[in-house]
Design goal:
about 475 residues, alpha/beta, 5-stranded mixed β-sheet, 20 strands, globular
Length: about 475
């Protein structure tokens, strides 16, 4: 069974499991807990205690746990699991990487310590950084597992500098033993930070004694443009001096007939097609007011934002209609309740916190339109909220916005392929490959020396905004792809 403990401090929800936990236990204890948090517009700090009297979960309880957790994952601010049972401790540590909030495991005798940790949330930074303005080097000190907030702070410092300077001379990461990432969200935020900044950083130095550090320079060149080099943990001054010095000049790689490529063609970004004037509501906005907002502005969904402007969820017409579906008909007949717990909660909800769909899927203004389209398809959503590096909402982009690229006139598409792709990137003249475009369908005709050049031309043409498909009709003299 599950029962809520009454001795938890304010702001902490404590649940104790004993005997065999069933699906009905989840419905009686966990679902009301989540409903309360949604209604009050607050985050959940959960203490989950499994003492020696706990036996197991029923299969139905496991399924209920998965459904409930999936629908409410973004509501959790932290979770402490108190138990001496090894299988629970091990499985919790494994699952914690997939959670969007910090998760810690405590021994059965450490309940008070677990409560103190929950009360202290959100945690302070495990990463500190300093921008050395004279040498133009950003020094990052890493002591705890990397969190999403750490990369937000790094991005804010780096972006503030880059607003008035062309580049950073270098970045130095100083870490004795790499602690990893707090969860998968922080790993993805790390990847995004690298993607957004590596072209404007000259050198990256890793001052660390961890065994993995020696591998970084060997594979980093596949992902970043900057030079990368390892130093020992005690060689911080040498690492900063190296990062501050100008990088070695890079050699351009010939693409076709010994001629170097120039910058790639520019593609439409999310920032160019998104709607910037975004209407939002707060978690405590009542049901009827949300309905009025949708009708007044002629929109089908509205983001829910916290006081800082960060997205918490999205309320769509579908979410609101669950209230109507749950109403009895004129004969008093009640429809069967929805199977999923979060759907039942929405049917009873009175404000945005209870109605909203979470987690919300976000994009960034500098994303190519194609990347946003892939993200929509992967998550099966109709729209993406666009956020800045501090996670504040700056726009919204819908499927119809992304489809605007196909409204480009055929002449514009043909000119971009001819001038930017063939002439600019591949250095092919108009006599070698001709371009025809009709209703977005591109035909490439001509003859080149190498098969690889013909294949590259086809792939690059497919990436041009407004292209529906490419029909390659390019002959070649040498099959340089054969082994």
């Amino acid at each position: 069974m599950l029962e809520r403990a009454q001795d938890a401090p304010s702001g902490v929800d404590a649940v104790k499991a004993s005997g065999t936990v069933s699906k009905d236990d989840y419905k009686a204890v966990i679902e009301p807990l989540i409903d309360d948090a949604r209604r009050e517009g607050r985050r959940i700090r959960l203490l989950w205690e499994c003492g020696p009297e706990f036996r197991s979960f029923t299969p139905a309880a496991g399924w209920e746990d998965l459904k409930t957790g999936t629908g409410a994952m973004r509501l959790f601010e932290g979770c402490a699991v108190v138990t001496d049972m090894r299988w629970i401790r091990d499985s919790t540590r494994l699952a914690s990487f997939l959670m969007p909030c910090p998760v810690r495991v405590f021994g059965g005798q450490d309940r008070e310590e677990a409560l103190r940790w929950l009360v202290s949330l959100p945690e302070g930074p495990g990463v500190s950084h300093e921008l050395l303005t004279e040498s133009k080097v950003l020094v990052v000190e890493v002591e705890q597992p990397l969190r999403t907030q750490d990369f937000d702070a790094l991005a804010q410092t780096a972006d503030s500098w880059l607003e008035t300077h062309d580049a950073l001379s270098g970045v130095v990461a100083h870490v004795r033993d790499f602690p990893g990432w707090e969860n998968i969200g922080s790993l993805l935020r790390h990847v995004r930070f690298v993607r957004d900044h590596h072209r404007r950083i000259g050198r990256i130095a890793l001052a660390a004694d961890t065994k993995l550090a020696g591998l970084v320079p060997h594979f980093a060149h596949h992902f970043v443009q900057a030079e990368v080099r390892q130093f020992g943990y005690d060689e911080l001054d040498d690492a900063v001096a190296w990062a501050a010095s100008p990088p070695h000049p890079t050699v351009q790689t010939p693409v076709s007939k010994g001629r170097p490529a120039t910058k790639p063609a520019q593609h439409s970004t999310v920032g160019e097609v998104m709607t910037r004037d975004v209407v939002t509501v707060r978690p405590d906005t009542p049901f009827k007011e949300i309905t009025s907002v949708l009708a007044t502005h002629g929109i089908s969904a509205v983001p829910v934002a916290d006081a800082r402007g960060a997205p918490m969820g999205l309320v769509s017409e579908t979410d609101l209609l669950r209230k109507q579906v749950d109403q009895p008909d004129k004969y008093g007949e009640q429809a069967a309740p929805p199977e999923w717990p979060h759907e039942r909660a929405k049917a009873r909800a009175e404000n945005a916190a209870g109605l909203m769909t979470t987690p919300v899927v976000t994009a960034h203004a500098d994303w190519p339109v194609a990347q946003a389209a892939r993200e929509m398809d992967r998550h099966r959503v109709r729209r993406l909220l666009v956020v800045d590096d501090t996670d504040r909402i700056i726009g919204i982009v819908s499927r119809s916005d992304l489809l605007r690229v196909f409204l480009r006139p055929d002449d514009e598409v043909r000119e971009e392929i001819r001038d930017d792709v063939l002439a600019g990137m591949l250095r092919l003249g108009g006599t070698e490959v001709q371009v025809q475009v009709h209703e977005g369908v591109v035909t490439l005709r001509g003859e080149v020396e190498n098969r690889s050049t013909a294949e590259i031309a086809e792939r690059l043409a497919k990436g041009v905004d407004g292209v529906v498909t490419v029909r390659p009709m390019i002959d070649y003299s040498v099959d340089d792809t054969a082994r």
